[in-house]
Amino acid sequence: MKKSIFIVILLLISLTTFAQTNTSLDKEEHLLDGTSFTFQYQNAGAIDISFAHDSLTYKWLNGRNAGKPAQTYPYKSTKIDSGIYLVNWHEPDTENFVTQVYNFNSNTVKVSVISKYGNEKPFLGFQSGVIEHIQNNKQ
């Protein structure tokens, strides 16, 4: 019985310590500041995107959104692995929430968008693309 109580107490202490440990996934970071690149979606056109001062700016180069003005939003990011980053941002004016995974090792991007979330019929979309013309001006 004493052994069981000791194990339970040890387990509770371990879980409490683990729960209080900050990991990189817990931190709001802007790891891509100073980076810019173009990515080409498989079916939806190409985008120039740049990261600076805790914000990202993107502009459609071609596709159905070509010609629209550049958009700038605050972003959050975390490093998943060497050369792989998870990035998200919120576009309140268009009711879109965007999550992207950039893999600079394979020069690919995976995208999830919740579009028009305030509408009666929100849209959830997934896309893939190819990253090109990477520039890194981190200081």
Draw up the topology in text:
Elements: H1 2-20, E1 35-41, E2 46-52, E3 55-60, E4 71-81, E5 84-91, E6 96-103, E7 108-115, E8 123-136
Antiparallel strand pairs: 1-2, 1-8, 2-3, 3-4, 4-5, 5-6, 6-7, 7-8
Organism: Maribacter vaceletii
Pfam families: MoaF_like (PF22036)
Protein name: MoaF-like domain-containing protein
What does this structure look like?
Residues 34-114 form the MoaF-like domain. The structure is a single chain. By secondary structure, the chain is mainly β. It has a single domain (24-136), classed as Calycin beta-barrel core domain (Lipocalin, Beta Barrel), CATH 2.40.128. Helix content is 14%, strand content 50%. The chain has one helix and eight strands. The chain has one helix at residues 2-20; strands at 35-41, 46-52, 55-60, 71-81, 84-91, 96-103, 108-115, 123-136. Strands 1-2-3-4-5-6-7-8 form an eight-stranded antiparallel β-barrel. It is globular, with a radius of gyration of 20 Å. The termini are far apart. The model is unreliable at 4-8 and 14-22 (pLDDT under 50).
